[in-house]
Amino acid sequence: MAIGLALTFMATGCKKTPIILTNLKNRPSPVGDGGPGTGGTFTPGPGGSGPGGGPTADWPEGDYNPNRIIFNQHIVHFDFDSHVVKSSEKGHVQAVANELSSNAAAKLVIEGHCDERGTDEYNRALGERRALALREELAGLGVDPMRIKTKSFGKDQPVDPGQNEAAYAKNRRGEFILMTPK
Amino acid sequence: MKSAARLFFSIVSFVVAGSCQSWAQSKIVVSGEANGAIPVALSGFTGEVAEVLQFDLFVQGFKIVARDRAQFLISGSNAGNVQGRVTLAFGDGGAASTPLLSKSYTGGSLRRQAHAFADDIVSATTGRKGIGQTRIALKVDTGANSEIYVADFDGHNAQAVTRDNTIVAAPTWVPGKLALYYTSYKLGNPDIFRHDLGNGQRDAVARYSGLNTSAAVSPDGSKVAMILSKSGSPDVYVCNADGSGLKQLTTMREDESSPCWSPDGQWICFAGKKDERRSLWKVPASGGSPQRISTAGVSNPTEPDWSPDGKLIVFTSMGRYFSVCTVPASGGEATVLADGEDPSWAPNSRTVVYTRRVSGGRRLSLLDVPTKQTKDASRISGNNSQPSWAK
User: Fold this and answer.
1) Nearest chain A Cα to B6, which residue?
2) How far apart are CA B105 and CA B114, in angstroms?
3) Which residues contact B275 (CB under 8 A, 6 or more apart)?
4) Could you tell me the pTM of the whole model?
5) Using a CB-CB distance cutoff of 8 angstroms, which residues of chain A are in contact with residue B159?
6) Could you tell me which of A120, A55, A84 has the C-alpha nearest to residue B276?
7) CA angle B18-B19-B20, nearest 5°?
8) Does A23 score more than 60 pLDDT?
9) In B207-319, where do the E strands start and end?
């Protein structure tokens, strides 16, 4: 009773379609619930209440020139797995606030970074939380939070690729970029 | 179950035919390996075909053993094309005269044929659908920049699908479709895009100020969950597939991350922190109060992924090292399975692809959850991370 079915199976390989890539157009957020402030419940009071200094700012970066040098002595460092701005770092935040209060047209971008000891998306959120914590500090010092944008790079841009505590400590940071109108 | 019926038929027909050995002397090997793997013997295959068969079977809970320990014999050849048979084995070295499966494969490459045969082996012996012909998306970085790649689930036949020379993150498939969502910094900020792999069309889905990342598509493809910081803190949001109809689902002051959907589309599971404690949470996809999902025995759970059959949540525990763990979907005792992070379920709800840190970077590895068997995928030059399994 040998039932040996020999079926022929057509295993067609996947045809490799050429990759067509559309350029990513510089379009604003899609229709519906638009940018911050629409349909939201936050009303930022003086100093910007709410976490991170309230809803995020939305001015076009393309209208400004970035200056990374001016604040490169004022990088703020964070403890492991923390977004708390330590008292030892507050002098840096004050220096940034001073510049912004004397330069009314300028805006600010705060970049948040992590060391590699967290997972990718966890670190992307933590980096953002660090940038927002600095924004909240600046708001507390009288800077309008709507002048400040935040940008997290998670652990994608370490300053030190080493795998030791000294390198990690350097990588857990917030960087301030002054944006001056073109 | 179809294969059980075939198995029974094979045994019955063997007895009725009265060939070779008597029923009383034959012993069917019922028990598998100590870890529950199904022992099988391979013979007649060489080179790439043998490698593919060994790999595919191992990561789906089989183990290649000598003939006298095998429960099934897989024999055949690959001269010209793949031909193979699967036969029930007996503990004393004998085998059923009627194969469970006997097929010849044509078309495509030998590698494709071997994957197809592996799928048929899985089906014939267990009734389950094989994963040999499935694909993954992943992030590949070579220094400062990164690109999104699509590859066979084992890392072979990798193709870049972006060429933007920027930072990308968190690719995720649209269920049942040749399309991805991912995060890209191409326009100067982490934004979420939808990318149709068929025609190359890309559309912005979330370009709010601050962070837009961690897109996860609902099982029916109609909605996307994501992490946005537009309200001042990274929170879970849900919107339509095109980004319209945005709704905020969490308002916790701490940072939420890594949303994923339950297979019935009712819940979104995510990692969050409350009262100084990091946990997994779930919130109704239509809105409501988040509830903790306990992961007893491990700390700092993150990056959850809900199994397609709804039973388990796989996640990363961040301790001194990263561990891939599972927990019942309703919460409870967590099980540590492998060193690694960022797991994604295969459609079979048992195999998981994840990232493993090695000296010199990161590579992808595969884990069979029930047997805990692991095997590295083929590495694409550079660091391989953030895999997403197409379902």
Assistant:
1) A3
2) 8
3) none
4) 0.87
5) 16, 19
6) A84
7) 130
8) no
9) 212-217, 223-228, 235-240, 247-248, 257-261, 267-274, 277-284, 291-293, 295-296, 301-306, 312-318
